[in-house]
Structure formats: structure tokens, C-alpha cells
């Protein structure tokens, strides 16, 4: 993340947005200004744009809001295509910013593993990832979206990734340098440079 924050290109900002919100690639790239409530710190994605065809609300951390502050607001999309401001950018330029062999979807796996190891419940993680929560019995108890309860989790995730950048491109000297480490069993995980990823004691969460 520290390396990404040094790059103020639209592609880099989009990758940061996807990581901070734990959203799917297309959901992040196709985000619209009409879906954003900065005052409430919420991103409301309509079901028509979601894999499960259900509305999804993402609590936005100050770090995610800092990304918004660096975007051009003249079009309908947060991350518009170069020649069409009413269409979203493609993934091609974004993949140039991540190491070879790593997918943008892998960041959702990193989030899920981090959240699971941090003690957050599986229903809470599933809601953050816009999954269908558990079975019929579980869903009977978890009826809402738990937006307020998910906000501290998304904030903790953003804090884990490092501090929000200033408006200037200079990186914060106190920001930790994070790298993607590969675990043969559990996939990719974000961890401090020089350390190996911790492995969950139980099964990983599917994404």
C-alpha cells in the first residue's frame, strides 16, 4: 500500500479503493459518485451491479475517503475510462501495478484471512464481502447488513494497511512497508516486509 500511495495515477487510486473496501474488481472500477455519501461515510452499491443482485453498503474509512478526495468529480464514475467519462476504466493499467501472478481478487482473500485471524465472525466477514450469509438458520438471525458493526472492522483493516496519505505525493515516513506474501495453502496475504504471513488455525474464508 505504501508503494501504491506514492503513485497518484487513477489506476493506483482504483487499486487502493478496491483494497480498502474489499470489493470485487468490477464493483470498484465501476463505482459512481451517485453511490457515495461522504458525509455518512457510506458507499451504497445497487443490486444491479452486484454479483448476488442485492444492494450492498460499504462503510468507508478515512483512508478510503482520502482516496475520494484525490479524484476528479466531473464525470459520473470515480474511475472513468480515458476517453469516455461515462464509462469505467479497464483492469489493464491496474494489473501493471501489482506483482505478476497476483490478481486483484486476491486482495479479498487477504482481507478475509486477516479478518478471520483478527477474531471477526464469519457472518460479519461474509457481509463485508457481499456474500450470502451462512445457511437458512444463520440468515434468520442475521437479517440486517450490520453496517454500523462492520465500520470498526473496515477501519481496523485500513489501519492494518497503513496510515492515510497526505494530499501531497510524499509517503508518510511512519507508514509500514507492506508486501504480498504467498502461502501455498491459503493464497496471498498482506504482511509487514520481512515477515511471513500467519496461517489461520481453521479453514480460510471463501471469496
**Tally of helical runs:** 9
**What is the total domain count?**
1
Name of the CATH architecture: Orthogonal Bundle
* Strands in their spatial order, largest beta sheet: 1-2-3
Radius of gyration, whole Å: 17 Å
CATH class assignment: Mainly Alpha
Question: What can you tell me about this protein's structure?
Answer:
The chain has about 210 residues and is α+β, with helices and mostly antiparallel strands. Helices cover about 35% and strands about 10% of the residues. The protein has helices at about 1-5, 10-20, 25-30, 60-70, 90-95, 105-115, 120-130, 135-140, 145-160; strands at about 35, 40-45, 55-60, 180-185, 185-190. It has a three-stranded antiparallel beta sheet with strand order 1-2-3. The chain has a two-stranded antiparallel ribbon with strand order 4-5. A hairpin with a 4-residue loop joins β1 and β2.
Summarize the structure.
This protein has 207 residues and is an alpha+beta fold. The protein has helices spanning 2-5, 10-21, 25-29, 62-68, 92-95, 106-117, 122-128, 136-141, 147-161; strands at residues 36-37, 42-45, 56-59, 178-183, 187-192.
Amino acid at each position: 500500500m505504501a508503494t501504491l500511495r506514492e503513485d497518484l495515477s487513477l489506476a493506483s487510486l482504483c487499486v487502493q479503493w478496491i483494497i480498502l473496501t474489499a470489493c470485487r474488481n468490477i464493483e470498484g472500477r465501476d463505482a459512481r459518485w451517485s453511490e457515495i455519501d461522504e458525509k455518512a461515510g457510506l458507499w451504497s452499491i445497487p443490486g444491479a451491479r452486484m454479483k448476488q443482485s442485492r444492494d450492498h453498503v460499504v462503510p468507508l474509512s478515512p483512508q478510503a475517503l482520502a482516496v475520494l478526495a484525490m479524484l476528479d468529480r466531473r464525470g459520473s464514475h470515480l474511475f472513468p475510462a480515458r476517453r469516455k467519462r461515462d464509462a469505467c476504466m479497464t483492469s489493464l493499467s491496474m494489473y501493471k501495478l501489482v506483482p505478476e501472478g497476483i490478481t486483484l481478487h486476491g486482495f479479498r482473500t487477504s482481507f478475509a484471512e486477516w479478518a478471520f485471524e483478527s477474531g471477526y465472525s464469519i457472518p460479519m466477514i461474509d457481509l463485508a464481502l457481499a456474500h450470502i450469509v451462512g445457511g437458512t438458520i444463520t440468515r434468520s438471525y442475521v437479517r440486517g447488513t450490520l453496517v454500523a458493526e462492520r465500520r470498526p472492522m473496515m477501519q481496523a483493516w485500513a489501519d492494518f494497511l497503513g496510515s492515510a496519505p497526505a494530499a501531497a505525493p510524499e509517503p508518510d515516513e511512519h507508514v509500514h512497508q507492506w508486501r504480498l506474501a504467498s502461502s501455498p495453502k491459503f493464497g496471498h496475504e498482506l504482511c509487514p516486509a520481512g515477515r511471513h504471513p500467519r496461517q489461520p488455525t481453521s479453514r480460510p474464508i471463501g471469496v
